[in-house]
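Table S2 (text version). Query chain:
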Amino acid sequence: MTETETGTWIVDNGIVATGGTPERVLHNGAVLWQGERIVEVGRAAELGARHPEAQHLDARGGLILPGLVNLHHHLYSLPARGLDPGIAMNGFGPVLEHLWWRLDRALDAEAVRLAAALTLTECIRTGCTTLFDHHASPAVLDGSLDLIAAEVERAGLSAVLCYEASDRNGRDEALAGLAESLRFHTARRHDPRIRGMLGLHASFTLNDATLDRAAADRPPEAGCHIHLAEDILDVRASIDRHGAAPVERLHRTGLLDDRALLAHGIHLDGSELDTIAAAGAVIVHNPESNANNGVGRLDLARALAHGCTLGLGTDGMASAMLRALRAAFLGCRAATTDRSAGFAEIPTLLPANRAFARRLLDEPLLGELTPDAPADLIVLDYPPATPLDTTNLFGHLVYAASEAPVRHTIAHGRILMQDHELTTLDPVELAEESRAVAPGVWERFRRLG
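Corresponding structure-token output:
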């Protein structure tokens, strides 16, 4: 282990927002950690006096927050940047068929590795220390989650990984996808930093036999990560092909429980929301991706009124969770003339992310700055120009701090970025490697058209 993992460190000269319940805000605050765990949170002068041996990170008056959690990401999507599909895509089905399902088939092992590594640099830069990834690479399916896990370990982050099983390329590949997720889950069952889940693409690309097999083989603690009702296509095609809507299919197989991550959940009726709420599953809102794909907008107030738990993700569109929070807030307000919109719904998202990550990683204090919690913390370059306390912290976040750069990122006590410089991964070197690999990916993509 490096010195930053074994020594005593203090980040001070900042404003600490603990992320707990209740939330605490400490001006002139500090967080002290030893190894991988937080030891004390308090006033900077007091902690410094008690621990003169500690090394210091300067927050420079900024916000000291718990590391952020992303509940739905696609690390493999990075090679799509700048890619021209070469065909008009009118509707969500053509977007899947002519862009994403061609791209994932064009990936080789090196493209998977580099896409993961580069996207993880963006997670570090934007303060995300824990992520849930949903992967697809049919040409390198077996062992693909190990490729990603190796990059997560090198980066120093925590992650819950899965492979999205789907019948879209045939039954054999669907079963191989299930096997990859379940193999990885078993191998990492007791890993404190990287775990596995059962991964499923979406209801309309999954036959009943595959869902039944997934339900039969899934250990209950593995959970289930699936796209749900992202577009009306998922609902209509599921009914046409399989005789039932997506929520009913998940519910009757037993895959809908309090370890289920349901990405999107836009096109659901009230009874389906009631079923999800009763199961304790989490609907993951992905506002930037939904806007980009033109699939509609999750009605957060309606879902919450039915008792659903809502989290937040980026769906491979980006990695910046605070920017996604701002997008979710502005999306709420754009949909109504109610000037209070968003202030009740959006503050629930990041706490829900933390709570779900705690369950899947067996870390009861993850996402909180408190003694014995994992030393996952970030510093935003945001010295507030107006008073900041627990009553207006959310307003500061969505109106201003969400646009501030992250100065320091620490995960499990390891400094992954210090004064804006990454310490575990070199994004310039990785980007150069990726530019050499991308033309091959794009050429394979074109041949698959």
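Notes on Table S2: The two ends are 47 Å apart (CA to CA). DSSP finds 16 helices and 18 strands in the chain.
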